[in-house]
Amino acid sequence: MQIFSPTQHFSTTWLPSFSVKRDDLIDPFISGNKWRKLKYLLKVAQNQKKNHLVTFGGAYSNHLLATAAASARFNLKATAFVRGENVQNEMLLLCKLYGMTLIFTDRDSYKNKIDLFNTHFGDDEQCFFIDEGGASYEATVGCAEIIDELDQPFDHIFCAAGTGTTAAGLLKGINKNQLNTTLNVVPVLKGGSFIETEIAKYENDLANLVLHTNYHFGGYAKTTPELISFIKTFTSETGMLIDPVYTAKMFYAIKDLVERGQIKTDSKILALHTGGLFGILGMKDKFNSSF
Predict the structure, then answer these.
(1) Which of 88, 134, 173, 257 has the most other CB atoms within 10 Å of its CB?
(2) Strands of 209-211's sheet in order across
(3) Where among 99, 134, 169 does a domain terminate?
């Protein structure tokens, strides 16, 4: 499966020139950073002769869909512990079409993922544990390859963050290549300063890291009319679809930082489009009511 993604150039009314690493174009279902995070985990599973992937996520998790699709393509079984009550939605329908078994789990039990795995699959030698979002050292190695693919230097690289795994990989790549590049990380959760601690688990040198924690719009999977309006304007202006959970918050942060003068308009800026476009489906009512 091809992993390389193109870098495209855009302009808007608030920034005359910026680049986007289009990881969303890697694959429609194993999209963006999801494939990069799964790539080496799948190799580990293969080397250990495991044929059943067991992972975790919420009801609208792009990671679950990516894992389901990857499992089907590589002839593996897949099971997911889904956080919260038993629901039906478009995302989980796709997971089931790809053959994934879903185990709905109350939120307290979900907090101890290792215990869940061991209770249900501890005696099954064919099962391979994959943490929520694919968080792992192997995932950071895959994400570090994003930096290796760039054909020019950038002053600033931006990415959205949920677990911090992708950001850790980007920082690993920046440090390995000794780049004079600032990695701007936009946590999508409220109280996102913990992301720095998560990144530090995988990469020691944080000198090029800057966190922007004020662009969560209420928290994970939360939004506001202002963010919805921004998505509509940005997409119609650039022709590039972004999602309300991750990438919209990142692009909004870039816009705000530029308008505040914290990022110079003549800086070389690269934004990582991490895919996740199915996140729009979880907020379709908010979008429909805005038109």
Answers:
(1) 134
(2) 7-10, 18-22, 269-273, 156-161, 182-187, 209-211
(3) 134
To the question of pTM greater than 0.85 for the whole model, the response is yes
* Residues 195-237 pLDDT 10s: 999 999 999 999 999 999 999 999 988 999 999 999 999 999 9
pLDDT of 142 > 90? The answer is yes
Over residues 144-165, mean pLDDT: 96
pLDDT interval class at 2 (50, 70, 90): low
What is the secondary structure of the chain as a DSSP string?
A: ------EEEE--SS-S-EEEEEGGGS-SSS-THHHHHHHHHHHHHHHTT--EEEEEE-TT-HHHHHHHHHHHHTT-EEEEEEESS----HHHHHHHHTT-EEEEE-HHHHT-HHHHHHHHHTT-TTEEE--GGG-SHHHHHHHHHHHHT-SS--SEEEEEESSSHHHHHHHHHHHHTT---EEEEEE-STTTTHHHHHHHTT-S--TTEEE--S--TTSTT---HHHHHHHHHHHHHHS----TTTHHHHHHHHHHHHHTTSS-TTS-EEEEE---GGGGGGGHHHHHTT-
- 1, part of any domain: no
Give the structural domain span for 269: 7-28+138-288
Q: How many domains does the chain have?
A: 2
Q: Does 73 reside within a domain? A: yes
Q: Is the domain of 130 the same as that of 146?
A: no
